Amino acid sequence: MGEDSEGLHDLADLDANRLRSPLPTMIDPRRYQPPLPLPGGLQRAQIVASLERASIDGSQGSELQCYAREDCDRFLYTLDLVPESAVDVLEVGANPYFTTALLLNFRPRARLHLVNYFGGEPGTAAQTLQLPAFDGNGVQSHRLEYLHANLEAHRLPLPDRLLDVVLYCEVIEHLLNDPLASLLELKRLLRPDGLLIVTTPNVARLENLARMVAGANLYDPYSGYGPYGRHNREYTRHELHRLLEFCGFTQEVFFSADVHDNRAGGYCDLSALQDLVAFRAPDLGQYLFCRYRNTGAAPQTRPGWLYRSYAQDQLDPTPL
Asked: Which end of the chain has fewer CB atoms at under 10 Å, N or C?
């Protein structure tokens, strides 16, 4: 399980004329999201130029370049959620290491622990990331050791209460069976009052609403990387909050944001949609970004709104 960019679905259904029209101001997600944080006095273009020339074990493909250009804003919002004082930091789904590179450069106090999963049995491995320095001076090379593990099924070989911060970014939507198990494993590793940072696509984003109105499909395509390569279950803002709260976390920061061009207007006339969604205008962004503090006890049951076909005593009946 590693990071990936949101798939661009049903492009053939887009209306090119409407696509060029600006989004209605009242439901434009960029009106409500925070300003893009830029570290170290750099410009966004400098950061993109470095990331899109990154290579992993000497391999540099067009897929990585596109990912760097398309998702740079997401990496920057994620970095900004990590306190500069954090020491022990776990990044789950670190490959292709764009967020990792930002942490190495702009959170120098952080001692990084990395997790990836590419299928198969758990273990340890390493990859080498090379990229031009963000300030343009030279080339950086980082040998990155990581734990190879599936958080739905494997316990990480790390001690309890080790971590100040966990980054769980663009992973939860890929899980097949048991998101609760992964969150409770991360909770085990976090110190009391430690921070869990989660980012994930917003299933209730404006583009998906427009797709549904137009009759276009919003599900993720099948992936050449196998079942974990696609989005198997995306979340609304309310669902993600309820799930993290159920696991004993307390909200500190939560916002949605667009990080790609918004193509909602290419699917339907958004003026007809505006009145229906204005009440939740701040929640229409493409991605959810949140930081929660580890404050409560781990649950002994599963949320009944997210799980089914379990014994009744294993499910919490509280409705969503």
From this structure: C
Question: CB 263: neighbour CB atoms within 10 A?
Answer: 20
**The residue type at 178:** D
SS3 call for 229: helix
State the 10-residue block means of pLDDT for the chain, 320 residues long: 49 63 93 98 97 94 91 98 98 98 98 97 97 95 98 96 98 98 98 98 97 94 95 98 98 97 94 94 98 98 97 95
Residues 245, 241: Cα–Cα separation, whole Å: 6
Angle at the Cα of 96 from the Cα atoms of 174 and 99, rounded to 5 degrees: 95
What is the third-level CATH fold of 11-316?
Answer: Rossmann fold (3.40.50)
Which residue type is seen at 210? A
Number of other CB atoms surrounding residue 41 within 10 Å: 7
Distance CA 131, CA 133 (A): 6
Contact by Cβ (8 Å): 251, 292: yes
**220-234 burial: b if 16+ Cβ within 10 Å, else e:** beeeeeeebbbbbeb
Q: Are 42 and 135 in contact (CB under 8 A)?
A: yes
Question: Strand order in 190-201's β-sheet?
Answer: 55-56, 123-132, 139-148, 111-116, 88-92, 163-169, 190-201, 287-294, 249-257
Instruction: List the beta bridge partners of residue 196.
Output: 166, 292
Nearest to 251 by CA among 183, 197, 287: 197
Helix/strand/coil for 208: helix
106 CB contacts (<8 Å, ≥6 apart)? 39, 40, 79
| Distance of alpha carbon 189 from the chain centroid | 20
Domain positions in the chain: 11-316
Q: What is the SS3 assignment for 103?
A: helix
Token pair for 206: 């404006």
Residue spans of beta strands (DSSP E) within the chain: 55-56, 88-92, 111-116, 123-132, 139-148, 163-169, 190-201, 249-257, 287-294, 302-303, 315-316
